[in-house]
Amino acid sequence: MKIGTVLVRGMLAGLLAAVLAFAFASVFGEPQVDNAIAVEEAGAGHDHGGAAEPGAEEEEVVSRGVQSTLGLAVATGAYGLAFGGLFALAFAFSYGRVGRLSARATAGVLGIVAFVTVFLVPFLKYPSNPPAVGQPDTINTRTTWYFVMVLISVVAAIAATVLASRLAARLGSWNAVLLGVLGYLVVVGVAALLLPVVNEVPEGFPASLLWNFRVASLGTQLLLWAGIGLLFGVFIERATRRVAAARA
Amino acid sequence: MTTAAVPVPVPISIPVREILPWAVLTAILSLVLLYFVGTAQGADSIIHEFVHDGRHLLGFPCH
User: Fold this and answer.
1) What residue segments make up the domains of chain A, in order of their start?
2) A147, A164, A186, A215: which is deepest, by most CB within 10 A?
3) B1 — contact with chain A (CB < 8 Å)?
4) Where are the bilayer-spanning segments (chain A) (predicted)?
5) Sign of torsion, CA B16 B20 B26 B27?
6) What does the pLDDT look like over A149-185, one tens digit per residue?
7) A17 to chain B, minimum CA–CA distance in Å?
8) Rounded-to-integer distance, Cα A141 and Cα A41, Å
9) Which residues of B20-31 are buried (b: 16+ CB within 10 A; e: fewer)?
10) CA A121 to chain centre
């Protein structure tokens, strides 16, 4: 199989999965964003996107109407495209090397692993927040810590995978995978303990709104990664069959 | 179903030497894309405001 074949399918799966995630985010996420902005404008929180004096027209660089539709679509599409490509690379490295899983099963397992390591574990340490939560002057440090957490999680997962595949011959696949998972959990657990705590939820911000927003965010990411793993599996299985047929 | 008769091919891995140059290129392009979606890059820029909702809902820190 050619690496170009794999990459194109990864990016295509990423874009299609992004369409699913965008639809979910529009229906379940956008109302929570709007609610949070309403809370913010009512005074519980900091200013957002320029001076928001009561009655005065808020100065917006990009209107809410564009942010919540085209902006959301482009953001999700770019995210899906980028991670679709990276997913294809991870597949190219692991297919035929990590166990003897078929192409489609490899893609499915990778989808679950990617969702957990790229999003879920960092999310447990630094959960997503709606507008009005989080102080503007700490955004750069918060972004840095978030990316550090993602980086540690992804590197630990790759190391755990390499470790598990080396141990598999000696300990059997079950034990090797369990040891790999355990090693990963220890590393991200220590990282989560050592990295600074961020708690910037404003006084009086509705807890239910925060919960609803975070669930919507979780759902968006779940759909994206499920979409990438499953769609890529369909595309790549067809490609491997074609390669096999050409060889026969 | 005719497809059921086609055996599942034995996994043939792609040589790492073939993957590496593509890996470098894809990683760089992807990180640039993710940088624009996921970071502050000077709070009031057009791109920052344009992808605002996506950044919040995809889990990146924002304000």
Assistant:
1) 3-134+204-247, 135-199
2) A164
3) no
4) 70-93, 105-124, 144-164, 176-198, 218-236
5) positive
6) 999 999 999 999 999 999 999 999 999 999 999 999 9
7) 13
8) 25
9) eebbeebeeebe
10) 10
